[in-house]
Amino acid sequence: MTLKEYLETTRITQTDLARTVGVFRGTIHNIVTGRKAPSIELALKIQDATDGAVTVRDLLPTNHPALRLLSEKDQGSNRLRPAMTSKSLGR
Predict the structure, then answer these.
(1) How many helices, marked H, and strands, marked E, lie in the chain?
(2) N or C: which end of the chain has fewer CB within 10 A?
(3) What is the pLDDT of residues 51-73, one digit of tens each?
(4) The domain spanning residue 45 has which CATH number?
(5) In a domain, 35, yes or no
């Protein structure tokens, strides 16, 4: 599902989504209109904020290097999960 479709379907405003993921409304607007692709971190936040209705794959261009991180197993679920590292675990 595209981010635009999600926002229209759920009647969530760009402003509300922007607050939820911690960016300016203009950033969400640029993603919705296709002017800019989000960073991988922002794409993951949007995926989480939409409970997976809008996935990282939906948000990033098909040639984005981060999409190579998807394993064959993850491709079935269409969700990208960040790798657990000692840094992300606070070690």
Answers:
(1) 6, 0
(2) C
(3) 999 999 999 988 888 787 764 44
(4) 1.10.260.40
(5) yes
